[in-house]
């Protein structure tokens, strides 16, 4: 009877908002529709120049669980940290103001934590692709259910870098001294990495978040800018430092090969037409983070492992040619089998790349890639 009468735990939700006058209503409505009803939210108007602040204030007048903090523009990390200082709760969640929650998101995450006693819980996501909601295959793979896990149980979970598909026990967040980096983009990864390394967590296969990737949002800032790439290297550097301090060789190897390298293909695609300054920064980051091991050992697709090796060798023209050629293909890059050894490798036209000048391991295919 005591358990039945106990009040549901309070979830404090931080919603940073900038330039989202067309999206904030849908975001808040999804919060109002949660089956876990006991929450309070703070919307942080991060110096928005459109009607975002007015929309937020209107919601605060309509529901006393919602408050608003108006601030000068400080970026996403600063807005999240400011909101965290203003919100109460047994649990803490972060919700981006252009996204929405499925109705049972917080019920699923909090329910798992109430049963397990873990520090935080993470669930899978879907994202809009046109009018359809699609669960990325890699998210489905990472979110096979676990309870009370440590990072050694599933090192690949470090690839779940998002702030907003998780709920933290507030005491665990504060006790670990967690906060979001400020003044830098891609701020999610260093903090989520620290959490996975130092805390117990639950992994849910339920979809708990609907992600909208829109033109002009922070996540869609042009990756071709030097500042964007510099920020990406800085947050990767911070995350790798945390992994190395953790002291597990197995976790570090998985992190470097499968997680840290995971998004590099996006940058390789930008090599055609990039500026000399951007190229130098791309190569310096690749050498700093993978120079001792080489991207040929990474979990990148074969063509992008080859591109990574070419970046390491400072062969910009050939990276550009390779990426332009790949863009013309309707399927995977051609493969060829060595008649003597039976080994398979990429087959790249001589006009694109002289394969005799490439290390065999940069062209090699793995068994599951044949």
TrEMBL record:
Keywords: Transferase. GO terms for molecular function: hexosyltransferase activity. Residues 13-138 form the Glycosyltransferase 2-like domain. InterPro entries: Glyco_trans_2-like, Nucleotide-diphossugar_trans. Coiled coil: none annotated. It comes from the Bacteria. Pfam families: Glycos_transf_2. This is Glycosyltransferase family 2 protein. It comes from Nocardioides eburneiflavus. The lineage of its organism: Bacteria, Bacillati, Actinomycetota, Actinomycetes, Propionibacteriales.
């Amino acid at each position: 009877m005591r358990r039945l009468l106990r009040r549901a735990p309070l979830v404090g939700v931080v919603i940073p908002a900038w330039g989202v006058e067309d999206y904030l209503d849908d975001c808040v409505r999804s919060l109002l529709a949660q089956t876990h009803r006991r929450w309070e939210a703070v919307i942080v108007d991060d110096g928005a120049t459109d009607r975002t602040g007015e929309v937020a204030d209107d919601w605060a007048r309509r529901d006393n669980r919602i408050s608003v903090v108006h601030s000068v523009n400080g970026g996403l990390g600063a807005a999240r940290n400011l909101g965290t200082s203003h919100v109460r709760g047994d649990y803490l969640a972060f919700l981006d103001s252009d996204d929405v929650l499925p109705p049972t998101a917080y019920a699923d995450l909090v329910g798992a934590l109430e049963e397990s006693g873990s520090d935080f819980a993470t669930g899978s996501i879907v994202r809009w692709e046109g009018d359809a909601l699609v669960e990325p295959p890699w998210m489905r793979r990472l979110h096979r259910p676990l309870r009370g896990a440590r990072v050694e149980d599933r090192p690949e979970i470090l690839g779940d870098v998002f702030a907003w598909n998780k709920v933290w026990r507030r005491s665990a967040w504060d006790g670990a001294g967690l906060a979001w980096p400020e003044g830098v983009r891609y701020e999610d990864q260093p903090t989520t990495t620290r959490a996975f390394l130092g805390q117990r967590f639950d992994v849910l296969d339920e979809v708990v978040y609907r992600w909208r990737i829109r033109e002009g949002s922070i996540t869609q800032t042009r990756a071709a800018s030097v500042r964007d790439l510099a920020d990406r290297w800085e947050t990767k550097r911070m995350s790798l430092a945390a992994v190395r301090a953790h002291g597990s060789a197995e976790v570090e190897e998985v992190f470097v090969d499968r997680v840290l390298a995971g998004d590099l293909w996006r940058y390789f695609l930008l090599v055609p037409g990039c500026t000399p300054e951007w190229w130098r920064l791309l190569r310096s980051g690749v050498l700093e983070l993978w120079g001792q091991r080489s991207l040929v050992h990474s979990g990148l697709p074969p063509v992008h492992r080859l591109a990574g090796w070419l970046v390491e060798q400072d062969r910009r023209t050939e990276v550009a040619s390779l990426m332009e050629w790949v863009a013309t293909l309707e399927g995977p890059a051609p493969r060829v089998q060595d008649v003597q050894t039976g080994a398979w490798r990429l087959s790249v036209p001589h006009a694109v790349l002289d394969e005799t000048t490439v290390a065999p391991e940069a062209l090699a295919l793995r068994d599951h890639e044949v």
